[in-house]
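User: Can you fold this complex?
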Amino acid sequence: MTSYLPILVFTLVAVLFLTAALLAARLLRHAGSASMNLEPYECGNEALTFAHDHRFSIRYYLIAVLFVIFDVETVFLFPWAVLFDQLALFGFIEMMVFLAILVVGYVYIWNRGALRWV
Amino acid sequence: MNVDVVVTVAKIAVVLGLLLQVAPIMVWVERRGSAMMQDRPGPNRLGPFGLFQALADAVKFLFKEDVTPAAADKPLYLMAPALALLPAFTTSVVIPWGPNFTWDGKEYAFTVSNADTGVLLFLALASLGVYSLVMAGYASNNKFSLLGSIRASAQLISYELAMTVAVLAVIIPVGSFHLTDVVAYQRTNTWNCLLQPFGFLVFCIAAFAETNRLPFDLPEAESELVAGFHTEYSAMRFAAFFQAEYTSMAALSALGCTLFLGGWSLPWLNYEGMGWLGVALGLGTLLAKVGVCMFVFVWVRWTFPRFRYDQLMRLGWKFLLPVALLNLIAVSAMTLAGWL
Amino acid sequence: MTQPLALPEDDHDGLFADSEEMELSFGPQHPATHGVLRLKLKINGERIVESYPVIGYLHRGTEKLFELHPFFQNIPHTDRMDYVAAATNNQAYVGAVEKLLGLVVPPRARCIRIILAELQRISSHLLWLATHAIDIGAMTPFFYTFREREILLDLFEDYCGARLTLNCMRPGGLPYDLPVGWTGRCAALMADLPGKLDEYEELLTNNRIWKKRTVGIGVLPPEVAIDYGVTGPMLRGSGVRWDLRKALPYDGYDEVEFEVPIGRNGDTYDRYIVRMIEMRQSVRIINQCLEKLPEGPIMAKRPRVMKAGKDAEIYHGIEGPKGEIGFYIVGDGTPNPYRCHVRPPSFINLQSLPELCKGALIADLVALIGTTDIVLGEVDR
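Assistant: Here's the predicted assembly.
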């Protein structure tokens, strides 16, 4: 556990650093802001719709789904990699089978056009 | 026990001290470096060679108006810059900054955290970075920001895959997540960039994409999306993103150097026998290597045009991922055969 | 129109159909719209479904202003249309007035006009290259081209005192002769320039990313280009060999040797190559003119008060850096033009933009705005 404590310290430092900077800035900068400045930037035009009014292209969610699939697969690779010496040939063959299944899925989504972005 | 705490605090102080210097130094390097490449003087008024330019920038950030758009999702909007700094700072805890040292008769590794998860921890923390970009872009409630943040999320997660697989290939012959072991492995054999050139290539390309640097700076893409995910951010909050970018560049460079370029070690030199001098030299060596990598980041930025979104995704999924997987298979087969 | 990025045909289960179009205002306050162009975009994800240029943010009523002043006082108005190509605007306008009044320009003045116009073409193309490269993400060529453009503008400054709004020609000739030593400095720059052009090309021409971003992007087939009335490098990029300097020579362009480059595929990359070659050809023209620069007067004999005949009307177009810049002038017997209409190349080339960016991505859009090489001062006038 002690080896993870420094991460907490670093996190605190990062947050404190930003908070201190923001506080200092709040004390130093001029206060008021014209109400026009608070509108979302749309190249100098009044925005007719906000970004949150829209549903966004489904393709991006597909990327997220694919990522989850592949990332979970790489999670399985980690313990295998670190214990590679002990698992030896059996582990290697086992992992090749695993990767072969992964590649089949990869080829399938490629053929299906899921990797044709935008 | 007390000594342990003192040592840890000292290590934290050293690493944090270094990390906080990265952004100001890189501002200067980037501006003067780009000026050098572009045949112009660059900032040269403040201090010798314009060295105080970063200071002036910081002061300017302090005095700038801080805008929170009325339509923004406030909690997310305020959280995003802090979340950007978090992975940038925390990832460097697992990097070995020099050889082991002895204090009070006890040997310590020169890493802030000696967690067994090592490099896995680095990747886990680094992948938190995507949240800040997505939050910033979504919370701004601005269409350009939204596009930028969606690009960012797609880009970061896509290249994370290739990077993870490339890192795994380094772990296989070493058999440990400890980056100290990776350095030790490279000291007995040779640098991993020579043993695994394809893995190194994949890692380098993915590193550019992970840090949103040109030619992969699509989340910002100032000529397309104005400023991408941080369009609405100003003053100190923008500075936080700015600092996070440079700090994560440094952290990722340090990881790359440790994994592929021998870390703090140099071939034919034995820092371990030199005591404190060795520790200082090791730290200096790693910093020099990181410096070179950072300069390459700058150099590439001012040389190349930018990819298009679909081209970037194609490169990530249809080129880097297969190459990384093949590299992994090749390395594991070679390790099995005892060649690595 | 060929679509390098067609929508997926294999969308079996309507996987990508369920998304919504978003309206986005691109410009006028945007880094890549080259001034104050505004594009109303309908986007679906990254893809542009529809684009609609909105112009007029820089409208100053130039054509009306022409009517309020005598012929020779209108030249500064032409400077402010395409403000990065003032010399060619001047040349087109004074050419039209000369045709209207029947003035014959002396050979020395014609030769110097060619030099000024070609210098202007180079400077305009340098600016185009700089901004085009920045739009695509390459920042460095900008500083290189501005380095050379600076020297070029110095030459203009030495000649007429101005760097941008030159006001450097008069109906019947030129206001000034070349200053002492000017030809030498110009020749030195011309000797230098081809090497510098190589330097820019080294960064871009064979760059894989640059090619990825430009080859096959915004293909404009020759028929479509002609239908839209597109001229200049845009038209030649599509493979149509049409250059007014060759087709309807003016100011003695028939006495110099040069080639007119054309593209093959009509894409952004071809237009880039065409403009790069054009700069080299301009250098060639200037060198010839500097060599054979005739002696003699620089101003024709002209009436003290220039008046067009009643109902006299004339159109004179020349090859500006961006395409055919022409003036249609109607006289009514007074010293002022009764009506002066401008044929602005930027405005007409801009009209092909919605066609070019049908189905393109947002990233392509900025490349396409760059490749049309518009100046909003001329579009809006």
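Chain C touches chain B through 32 residues (CB under 8 Å). Residues 62-380 of chain C form a domain with the Cytochrome-c3 Hydrogenase; chain B fold (CATH 1.10.645.10).
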